[in-house]
Amino acid sequence: MRYAVLSDIHANLEALTAVMDVLANSRIDRYLCLGDVVGYGADPSACVERLQRADALMVGGNHDLACIGKLQLGWFNDAAKTALVWTRDQLSFTDLDALRRWPLKTADGPFTLVHGTLRHPERFEYLVDVAQAVETMQICPTLMCLLGHTHLACVIEYDRAQRRLMRILTTAGELSEVAFQDEPEARRYIVNPGSVGQPRDGDPRAGYAIIDTDLTRISVRRVPYDIERAQRKIRDAGLPAFLADRLAAGR
């Protein structure tokens, strides 16, 4: 099967549309979304609807939970907080009901999905060091743990018998395609597809991943989108200018 893995869309409809248009011609069998569909950007409702139409398997991110009152706004910086207050007013009852239904973690075949770390998904910790990666892979019940939150793409491989990391591949290393071993007793993997709507690695293009379980390949990809249109919508909505400016910088 071929799985499309998306994360951190952040209400950027232009970025999501560009990704979905490419995926429409990529023989995708299942869409997996790792949270933070809303927040920051100007099209929260349209992004929720687009993923529902794709019948994507969802988990909630910290911005999603804040919109339904399950995470306090004090957790966020001023720009994010302003965007969340605005976002709440844009979402319909149907949208909010959809967000309420998204679990903090779930599983599908060889994948466990979570937004932050697997040990404490409700804390939305950023997986940024080796200790967190090892802990997550030790407790992951499936071959792969798919996660987002950092807005930085990476693939990490863990040897269960030797209890050591075999390789860590990141965006900075020009990660594009990685082979994996379909041996859940011997291996575990973490896959972060990067961010669709707000990349933070210096490359402003929308990020996503495709996992092909037949070919045992993980492909981390980028696609350009209409950044200026997304920026204009943010400014026209009266949201903080910083949220528009950062899109062009990929930061």
Describe the structure.
This protein has 251 residues and is α/β, with parallel strands linked by helices. Helix content is 31%, strand content 23%. It contains 8 helices and 12 strands. It has a 6-stranded mixed beta sheet with strand order 3-2-1-11-12-9. Helix 7 packs antiparallel against helix 8. The model has no long low-confidence stretch (mean pLDDT 94).
How do the helices and strands line up, and which of them pair or pack?
Layout: E1 2-6, H1 13-23, E2 30-33, H2 44-53, E3 57-58, H3 62-67, H4 78-90, H5 93-101, E4 105-108, E5 111-114, H6 130-139, E6 144-146, E7 154-159, E8 164-170, E9 177-179, E10 187-192, E11 206-212, E12 217-223, H7 227-236, H8 241-249
Parallel strand pairs: 1-2, 2-3, 5-6, 6-10
Antiparallel strand pairs: 1-11, 4-5, 7-8, 7-10, 9-12, 11-12
Helix pairs in contact: 7-8
Let me know the average pLDDT: 94
Number of helices: 8
According to DSSP, the number of beta strands is: 12
Structural class: alpha/beta
Q: How many structural domains?
A: 1
Largest sheet: 6 strands, mixed
Strand order of the largest sheet: 3-2-1-11-12-9
Low-confidence stretches: none
Shape: globular
What series of H and E elements makes up the topology?
EHEHEHHHEEHEEEEEEEHH
How much helical structure, as a percent, in the residues? 25-40%
The radius of gyration computed from the alpha-carbon positions, rounded to a whole number of angstroms, is 17 Å
Distance between the termini: 33 Å
Q: What's the CATH architecture? A: 4-Layer Sandwich
